[in-house]
Amino acid sequence: MKAKSVPRKPEGRAVVDPAKEAMLLAALYIAQEQKGYLTEESVKQVAKRLGLTAGEVYSTASFYTLFRTEPVGRYVIQVCEGLSCYLNDGAERVVEYVSEKLGIKPGETTPDGTFTLEMVQCLASCGTAPAMRVNDQLYENLTPASIDEILERITGEV
Ligand code: FES
């Protein structure tokens, strides 16, 4: 007797079509590039374009730490607090240094809207810890001097 095929219910996923899900991630990335975060309007536009509900789009956006639904600074500094960075005298030392330089704590944005500081887990740069990312750029083997150089280069661009 042949076993009856029972359709499997995908657990914890808002979008079940893999092709549509791939398009959704790309669309969210592009939408976020416009204003630095996903606005309510951009979520609705993406949903409409892909034939999804806004709830499905929000569900996916909230799953990935890459996506933000709140305004952030022009430059988002993500300091790694993973184990390798912690053991390489990073994490606390780096975030304290950056916090002091910018006058903000993790989760805050400078009053001029230039920088947002975040703590994140592993940036996949454990062999060159401590590490931090500023927008899409990864910085490794951080020292106070290299952090100064990075921030001075960025503020020179502002
Ligand atoms: S723990 Fe910091 S990059 Fe992996």
Compact overview of the structure:
By secondary structure, the chain is α+β, with helices and mostly antiparallel strands.
Detailed description of the structure:
The protein is an alpha+beta fold and 158 residues long. It has 2 domains: 18-63; 75-157, Glutaredoxin (3-Layer(aba) Sandwich). 44% of the residues lie in helices and 11% in strands. The chain is built from 6 helices and 4 strands, in the order αααβααβββα. It has helices at 18-35, 40-50, 54-63, 83-87, 92-102, 144-157, and strands spanning 75-80, 115-120, 132-134, 137-139. Strands 2-1-3-4 form a 4-stranded mixed beta sheet, with helices on one face. A hairpin with a 2-residue loop joins β3 (132-134) and β4 (137-139). The chain binds FE2/S2 (inorganic) cluster. FE2/S2 (inorganic) cluster binds next to α4.
Task: Record keyword descriptors for this entry.
single chain, 158 residues, alpha+beta, Glutaredoxin, 2 domains, 4-stranded mixed beta sheet, 4 strands, 44% helix, globular, disordered N terminus, binds FE2/S2 (inorganic) cluster
